[in-house]
Structures are given as C-alpha cells and as structure tokens.
Amino acid sequence: MKSTINKLEDNTIELKIAVPWETVKKVKEEVLEAFVKEAELPGFRKGMAPKKLVEERIDPDRLREEILKRILPQGYVEAIKEHKINPIINPKIHVDKLEDEKDWEFTALTCEAPQIELGDYKDKIKTVTAKSKIAVPGKEQTQVGFDEVVKILMETVKITIPAILVEGEVDRLLSQMLDEIKRLGLTLDQYLASTKRTIEDLRAEYAQKASNDLKLEFALQKIADEEKIFAEDKEVEEAITQAPNEAERQNLMTNKNLLAVIIRQQKTLDFLRNL
C-alpha cells in the first residue's frame, strides 16, 4: 500500500492511502469465499453453491462494505507504521475512490498528543497562592480557589488542540445532552426553542468548552509527568471503597483506569494550589 502524510496547521494528521487493485482483488476473493460458505441457495446445500452464482446474488454495496472492513484497518495501520506516528484517537476515514481495475483511495484523519509549552506557570501561580499563605492576626488562612489557579494556568500554557480532537469531544457532549433531553421527555427542537438557541449555537458553545477542557487536561498531564505525580493503587481502591452505594462501586471497579486519571488530575491541581 502507498501513503502520504500531511500535517495540518492545527496538528491534525491527514493520511492519503492508496490500496493497489491487486490487493483489493485478493481481498474480494477472500470475502466471496466467506459468502459462499454461508450461502443457502435453492438446489444447493449450504456452502456448496457455485461462487459465480453467489456473487450474482450479493448486493454490490454489501460486498464493497465487507471488502472495506478488511482493507481500511490494514491500510491505516501500515500508514501509521510507515510514517512513525502515534495516534491518540481512532481515525476519521473518508473513502475517496472505489473503482474496479484501479487503486482504491481513502483519507484518514487522526492526531498525536499535542506539543505543550508550560511557560513560567509556577511563578505566575505563586503570585496568587503566596497571598493565601500570609498570616493575618485574627483571620483564618484560606487556600486559593481551583478556578483562580486554572485561570492563570490556561493563560500561561501554549498548546494547539487539533480540530479533530475538539470535534470528537463536541460530538460526545452533544450525545450526552441529547440523552438528558430524552430523559426529560423533550425533543431537541423543543429544547432549542425553550433556550432560544440553534444547533449551531450549541456546537459553538460545546466547541469552546471542549477546547478549554482538552487544553487543561493536556496541561495537567504534562505537569503530572514532569512532577512525577501518580495515582497510587491504594488511592484508587480507597476511592472505590468510599463510593456511596454498590452500583457506584461496581461502576468505579469497571472504570479503574479512568478513576486513576481523575485522581491524578486532582492531585496535580492540589500541587498547583499549594505552590
């Protein structure tokens, strides 16, 4: 397979992949053999019908779909190995050309973890946290709020979030919102009318939220790596034990990795607030 790579300005990676017709033809034969084994045509025992007769009965779109299911993942894996990239998400794939006797072409969009410049975040955060450490007679010392620390961090950190990452998060947030609307017994149109917004307004709002959330997530991960902040097994187990009910405990048990990420983020925020 042949492939070319193009890194867009926002760090989205575009892979153009061409699958030689000989490879497509070979996979097509494999798919047809699989169809023949399952075919039950009048006058023939299961799996014994002639391949030509089976092929004539197959919906061309279904045949093409089954071929793509085999060659797209293989082509994508070969491309990322060839160009030595480490994607952090599943690709968005667009089929460009499917013609007999010609190479099949498709485009895969993906991205790696974005580069982060933390800058002098410690010094800037200390200008705020230092005030909370000054002892004033007759007054109890209070820690600076997380929101203030995060605000300074986001103003200091330099990072470009790939659009494909933002789009994926926006889709997740919209899906979550639609589930909540359904639970309320509303349709999307009713919800939009009641809030005087359009779907475009919602996507724009969620895009901003997604961009900010991802920026913070990557920044905290970078800081945690540099400061060697980790979620210990005993911290994860303790969080599971403290769950309010059995259902929640089972949910946390099933999502231990996610729980560890959340604990690590919280410990990193505590580290920042205590600078």
Description:
The chain is an alpha+beta fold and 275 residues long. The chain folds into two domains: 2-111, Trigger factor ribosome-binding domain (Alpha-Beta Plaits, 2-Layer Sandwich), CATH 3.30.70; 116-273, Trigger factor, domain 2, CATH 1.10.3120. 60% of the residues lie in helices and 12% in strands. The chain contains eleven helices and six strands. A hairpin with a 4-residue loop joins strand 1 and strand 2.
Short descriptors:
275 residues, alpha+beta, Alpha-Beta Plaits, Trigger factor, domain 2, 2 domains, four-stranded antiparallel sheet, two-stranded antiparallel ribbon, 11 helices, 12% strand
Quick gist of this model?
With 275 residues, this protein is of the alpha+beta class. The chain has helices spanning 21-38, 51-57, 60-82, 121-132, 146-156, 163-183, 188-195, 199-227, 233-241, 246-254, 256-273, and strands spanning 2-7, 12-19, 92-97, 104-111, 116-117, 158-159.
How is the topology of this model organized?
Layout: E1 2-7, E2 12-19, H1 21-38, H2 51-57, H3 60-82, E3 92-97, E4 104-111, E5 116-117, H4 121-132, H5 146-156, E6 158-159, H6 163-183, H7 188-195, H8 199-227, H9 233-241, H10 246-254, H11 256-273
Antiparallel strand pairs: 1-2, 2-4, 3-4, 5-6
